[in-house]
Design a protein that fits this description.
340 residues; alpha+beta; BirA Bifunctional Protein, domain 2; 2 domains; 3-stranded antiparallel beta sheet; 12 helices; 20% strand; binds 3,4-dihydroxyphenylalanine
Length: 340
């Protein structure tokens, strides 16, 4: 009986079929009702009790080997069959990979830049790792300003300070360094702030900064440019209002609200019943900033504005939790395909 088992093991190991039919035939021969294994089992019944233990184990091993080998051979043949057929049939339609979609933040950033490019703005970019001069000093931040504190800013090195930019206003400075007025740029980019992550704040987000410098630029120009932007972004019915505010780099400064596009200004839970949503900061460039960057503030004036891309995207798409933009869950991202 042992010899018979060994012989079958050898047979199974050497078996090299070319077709699935051969495998099936082999399966019936070994594992079928009238197959070799059942024949052995019949014989096993007559074996002396002291031999049963060892022989039983060998028979089990044989059975497992046969089952595994047959499954493996079937699988191999099925795989090579599909590989062959896909190569052979050149007329089959190609398999189409799933197309990705643009990230909603990219969609909105591009749209902001497009809107201002229609007003003659070009796009400028700058480094994410910055020095104190470009992020704070050249923008008229007083030495004791809280943004210069570790609690608000990620510092990489101290004295001299190297840090992650907290706003894209730093690109204003870099633009004024390289270019003489007239200047008209929008500056998109990623910014970093030492903030706890929640549904409305993140330590990494995106801004678009705008800067316009020329002779006789007035606050009325600023207001009209922003109104144009709001209508292009949120629809013809959109209106804006400006509230007085403070930024070190602009004087006067204002915060811009747009009429809530969800309730049409009547008041809802998104606009907290006010009918207005805050979208950006802006103002006339402080003469100190022009002078710090070598521009004659008696001859030139200008305005600047800065907005958060996530915030605009939340308002535009009705997204209530900002963290969704960073998780890259395809079920969320897929919804913006059509917004392209
Ligand atoms: N840099 C400001 C911030 O990050 C936004 C801003 C406000 C930019 C007013 C401006 C401006 O250019 O004039 O909060």
């Amino acid at each position: 009986m042992i010899d018979k088992i060994n012989q079958l093991v050898g047979l199974i190991e050497e078996f090299a079929p070319r077709t699935a039919a051969e495998v099936e035939e082999f399966r019936i021969k070994i594992l079928g009702k009238k197959g070799e294994l059942n024949a052995i089992m019949e014989e096993f019944k007559k074996v002396a009790p002291e031999m049963k233990r060892e022989l039983g184990q060998r028979i089990n091993q044989l059975k497992n080997l046969a089952q595994e080998r047959i499954a493996e051979l079937k699988n191999n043949l099925a795989q090579s069959a599909s590989a062959v057929s896909s190569v052979e049939d050149m007329s089959r339609p190609g398999s189409c990979g799933t197309l990705g979609s643009r990230h909603p933040i990219s969609i909105v950033r591009n749209e902001i830049c497009d809107i201002f490019s229609r007003l003659g703005y070009t796009v400028a970019e700058g480094p994410e790792i910055e020095d104190d001069w470009h992020v704070f000093s050249a923008l008229n931040f007083p030495p004791e300003h809280p943004a210069r504190d570790m609690q608000d800013t990620f510092f990489i090195e101290k004295n001299p300070d190297i840090l992650l930019r907290t706003h894209t206003s730093s690109i204003q400075v870099r633009t004024m360094e390289r270019q003489r007025p007239p200047i008209r740029v929008v500056c998109p980019g990623r910014v970093f702030r030492n903030e706890a992550i929640s549904y409305r704040a993140h330590c990494i987000f995106h801004q678009v900064e705008g800067l316009y410098i020329d002779e006789n630029v007035s606050f009325a120009d600023l207001k009209q440019s922003i109104l144009y932007f709001a209508k292009e972004m949120f629809g013809e019915k959109a209106t804006i209002r400006l509230r007085p505010s403070y930024f070190p780099f602009t004087e006067p400064s204002a915060e811009v609200d747009v009429s809530c596009n969800l309730c049409g200004g009547k008041g809802c839970n998104v606009c907290k019943g006010t009918g207005w949503l805050e979208i950006m900061g802006c103002g006339m460039v402080d003469p100190n900033v022009l002078e710090a960057n070598g521009i004659d503030s008696n001859k030139y004036s200008g305005f600047a504005f800065g907005m958060g891309v996530e915030r605009i995207a939340m308002l535009k798409f009705g997204v209530k939790d900002l963290r969704l933009y960073f998780e890259n869950d395809v079920r969320f991202l897929r919804q913006f395909d059509s917004a392209l």
